[in-house]
């Protein structure tokens, strides 16, 4: 550093030492970080325990009830192949004229 | 990641940052506090992101400077007459030292003022100063030399005046 800068260096050094007396504002509080991993660990741990408990239980064997037998018999009447097409039987005999009521009244 | 940088700034750069904010706000403490709050909010909201292109201090100082410029622009230029009695009631500052730093530095053009502060007070090199002030290296160098010359003459004048006062 050049000797001619000394006056400036001294000036700023004094300024700095004077500024040490200045009250510095406190740092604002840092917002708390949202930590998600403890919840994830706890959840997976719980899930693992539940899975272990379920898998460790012995399966209940399905045994037939002694002395009782249920028989299911399916019986069916064979239908004619055209039965499903006939929905109304003898429709010509029950036909009634739409103006029949007029004839009866007069 | 933001929290990490912010924690580092809190630990290492808060004091320097506050002093730089104060210098950018023409040595007004209240304004400096407001600016620092705004700076921290900017960082937390990730409006100002550190991308490691410069040193953390350089980036932090640049954010402070830009925030201070915006803040000072938003302030009213004139003080209402109602507040004048309060101002008059404030006791005049006593100067133990023959040098009044702020008055002397305020006589320099703003660029020279800031370049000298960053170089001599905050220990930044010219390249870093160029980043903080968003200027070219050549321009910073010019401000640096002119500022030094001018401050030196101001200091010598001040010393002469002080010595005459003592006599």
> Low-confidence stretches of chain A at least 5 residues in length (pLDDT < 50)?
none
How many separate helices of chain B?
8
Structural class of chain B: mainly alpha
Major protein interface: A-B, 20 and 28 residues
Unreliable stretches of chain B, pLDDT < 50, 5 or more residues? none
Walk me through this protein's architecture.
The complex is a heterodimer of chains A (106) and B (167). The mean pLDDT of chain A is 78. Chain A contains 3 helices and no strands. Chain A has 106 residues and is mainly α. Chain B folds into 2 domains: 76 residues; 72 residues, Winged helix-like DNA-binding domain superfamily/Winged helix DNA-binding domain (Arc Repressor Mutant, subunit A). The radius of gyration of chain B is 18 Å and the shape is globular. Chain B is built from 8 helices and no strands. By secondary structure, chain B is mainly alpha-helical. At the A-B interface, helix 1 of A face helix 1, helix 2, helix 6 and helix 8 of B.
Give the secondary structure arrangement, pairings included:
The complex is a heterodimer of chains A (106) and B (167).
Chain A: H1 6-19, H2 37-56, H3 100-105
Chain B: H1 2-24, H2 29-44, H3 56-74, H4 84-89, H5 101-106, H6 110-121, H7 126-133, H8 137-166
Helix pairs in contact in B: 1-2, 1-3, 2-3, 3-7, 6-8, 7-8
Structure keywords:
heterodimer, A: 106 residues, 3 helices, 0% strand, B: 167 residues, mainly alpha, Arc Repressor Mutant, subunit A, 72% helix
Short account of what is shown:
Chain A has three helices and no strands. Chain A is mainly α. The relative contact order of chain A is 0.03.
